[in-house]
Amino acid sequence: MKVLAVGAHPDDVELLCAGTLSRYSKRGDEVTICHACDGGKGSLEHTTEEIAKIRRKEAIESAEIIGADSIWGGFIDGEVTVDLKSRIKVIDIIRQTDPDLIITHSPNDYHADHLNIGKLVFEATYLACIKLWVTDYPNTDTVPTLYYMDTLAGVNFNPSEYVDISDTIKDKVNMMLKMKSQLGFLKTTHNTDAEEFIRIAAKFRGFQAGVAFAEGFVQQQMYPFGLTKRILP
């Protein structure tokens, strides 16, 4: 199976669904992580150009931990808008990876970039398979299944499915720790220790699911997709 995770910024996917992506990779699935934005606003000490380069390098190194590919979606931090140009960008993200499953931000997230990327992915998931929507890449053969990942600290998110990441929590932490430029930024800006945050959030979801550590998801229900087949690992 081909799995595509689309997060707004470098570290969103790592914080919210990396344990699940590691499970996919370990069972032999092809995983691609797309950071839609360049991360160019996420620093208190570097210029926009400097931090964008640093975060791109970190994203690639983080993905390598689980053998995943890392791509950039072509957006700039804080400039994600829901319009036709942006929709076409996301259609091509999907078409170039041709996934069976897409994971992205919840419609109940807090950040404008998160909300808009999630909405764009929703719009593009169906359109990517429409042949007469002509873009730089050929249409996909099928409509991928779409899942929304958890929000930060689980705020305004009620999972309908869980993935046991007890065996991959270390991979999740290590992927986030590769985002070195963000560790200090998160601590200074949000008083958040990234590793502690990951473990507490995963432990809470694990408590709900009856396992040591878990991640929560909600499937975007769309005709003609039924709910009789488990897609998550």
Radius of gyration: 17 Å
How many separate domains?
1
Compute the separation of the termini in Å: 11 Å
Give the low-confidence spans. Answer: none
CATH superfamily: LmbE-like
CATH topology: Rossmann fold
Tally of DSSP β-strands: 7
Helix content: 40-55%
**How many helices in DSSP terms?**
8
Mean pLDDT, as a whole number?
95
CATH architecture: 3-Layer(aba) Sandwich
Strand order of the largest sheet: 3-2-1-4-5-7-6
Helix and strand composition category: alpha/beta
- Could you spell the SSE succession in H and E letters? EHHEHEHEHEEHHHE
What portion of the residues fall into strands of 2 or more residues? 15-25%
What about the largest sheet?
7 strands, mixed
User: Class in CATH?
Assistant: Alpha Beta
Specify the overall morphology: globular
Molecular structure report:
There is one protein chain. By secondary structure, this protein is an alpha/beta fold. The chain has one domain: 3-Layer(aba) Sandwich (Rossmann fold), CATH 3.40.50.10320. Helix content is 42%, strand content 17%. The protein has 8 helices and 7 strands. It has a 7-stranded mixed β-sheet, with helices on both faces. Helix 4 (84-97) packs across helix 5 and helix 6 (169-177) runs antiparallel to helix 8. The longest helix is centred in the first third of the chain and has 17 residues, at 48-64. It is globular, with a radius of gyration of 17 Å. The mean pLDDT is 95.
